[in-house]
Amino acid sequence: MDSLIDKVTQYRQIVEQLLLSYASSKPAYGDIEVETIFDIQQCRYQIVHLGWQHKRWVHHCVVHLDIRKNKIWILNNSTEHDVAADLVDLGVPKGDIVLGFHPPFMREMSDYAVG
């Protein structure tokens, strides 16, 4: 049981480190703020862009990751980053990464976890 807790703690740190690194880049367009939202108790992590581009209000979830059943779920990625590859580079096994934005039948064809 302790190893599972350690795994979740490790994955929380990796996800936070990765998202903070992504969030350090401000969009080149508009007057946009970059917010990180970390719900540590529920293991939900997001980067949100908000502000004004011309006369249009922007409020957009750019990245959304959850840790569920000891796996990191990529639920949204509208960045140029390959989040899954970056997680692997940080030491997360492909079998612990779920491409949640794909349906299960497509996940089966990837090198990553199905769920």
Describe the structure in brief.
This protein has 115 residues and is an alpha+beta fold.
Explain how this protein is built.
The protein has 115 residues and is an alpha+beta fold. It is 29% helix and 37% strand. The protein is built from 3 helices and 5 strands. The chain has helices at 2-23, 83-89, 104-107, and strands at 31-39, 44-53, 56-68, 71-77, 97-99.
What is the class in the CATH system?
Alpha Beta
- Contiguous helical run count: 3
How do the SSEs run, as a string of H and E?
Answer: HEEEEHEH
Question: What fraction strand?
Answer: 35-45%
CATH topology: TATA-Binding Protein
Radius of gyration: 15 Å
Distance between the termini: 20 Å
Number of domains: 1
Q: Report the sheet with the most strands, covering strand number, pairing sense and barrel closure.
A: 5 strands, mixed
